Amino acid sequence: MSWKHLWIAALALVALVSSPATAQEEKNQLTGIVGRTFISNEGIKGATFSNPFVRFGKGFTFAVNYSRYLITNPLFALSGEVPVVFNLDQDVNSGANVVPSDYRSYFITPAARVNLFPATAVSPWVSFGGGFGHFSEKSSLIFGGTNPGKSKTTGVLQAGFGLDVRIWRRISIRGEARDFWSGEPDFPLAPTGKTRQHNFFVGGGAIWHF
Q1: Once rounded to an integer, what is the mean pLDDT over residues 120-135?
Q2: CA angle, 50 as apex, 49 and 54 as ends, to 5°?
Q3: 3-state secondary structure of 47
Q4: Structural domain count of the chain
Q5: CATH number for the domain harbouring residue 93
Q6: What is the distance between the alpha carbons of residues 94 and 146, in angstroms, rounded to a whole number?
Q7: Does residue 108 contact residue 82 with C-beta atoms inside 8 Å?
C-alpha cells in the first residue's frame, strides 16, 4: 500500500471516529420549509354535468419540524421528529356548484426519521409516522350559496424522503417530499366514493442544528 493510500485511510478513520461527537453535540434540529401541496383530481359519482370532477389546485404550504437524535453513528442516525404542515389556501373547483372555492388544512404527524451519514455534508433520509389532520372549509360554495360541508378532523399516515446539505456551521438546507395520507374533506354535494386522499407536500427550507 502506498503512502498516499495510507494517508487517505488515516483521514477516513479520523472522520469516522470524530463524527459521532459532532452529532452528539447537535442532537436537536429545528426546520422551516415552504412549498406546495398536490392532490389528484377525483371523479364525482353520479354526476350528470360537464367537468364532473373535484379539481384541486396547488396549495401554498409551510411546515415546521422539531427533531432530536435518538441513536447516532457514522453510518446512520435515528431521530424522533414532529412535522407540522399548514396548507393555507387549497383551491377547489368543479363543473357545478357542489364544492367550496377553497379550504385550509393542517397535519401533525410524529414520526421516526433515519438519516444516512448524518455527520457528513450531505445526508439523505426517509421518514415514517402518523398523527392527525384537520380540514376547515369555506362557508360558501364556489358559485354562491351555503356550503353544507363541515370542518373535519382525520387520522393521517405520513411517509417522506429528503436530502439535508450542511452549508455553514449549524445551518443546513433541506429539500423534501412527504405524502400525508388522510381522510377527505367533507363535500356532501360531490361524493367521490372514496374515503381517503394523498396530500403530496414538496418543499425546501433551512435547518438549525443545536
Answers
A1: 98
A2: 90
A3: coil
A4: 1
A5: 2.40.160.20
A6: 16
A7: yes
Instruction: Give CA–CA dist 120/206, Å, rounded.
Output: 17
pTM for the model stands at 0.87
Cell numbers linked to 141: 360554495
Q: What percent of the chain has pLDDT over 90?
A: 87
| Residue 118 grid coordinates | 448524518
Looking at residue 26, what is its pLDDT?
Answer: 84
- Can you tell me the distance from the alpha carbon of 200 to that of 195, in angstroms, rounded to the nearest whole number? 17
Torsion of CA 85, 88, 92, 98, to 10 degrees: 100
Segments forming the whole domain that contains residue 14? 3-209
pLDDT 10s digits, 51-80 = 999 999 999 999 999 999 999 999 999 999
- State the Cα–Cα distance between residues 11 and 63, nearest whole angstrom: 38
Mention every residue, 6+ apart, whose C-beta is less than 8 A from residue 13. none
- Cα 50 to chain centroid distance, Å, stands at 34
> Residue 11: pLDDT band by 50, 70, 90 thresholds?
very low
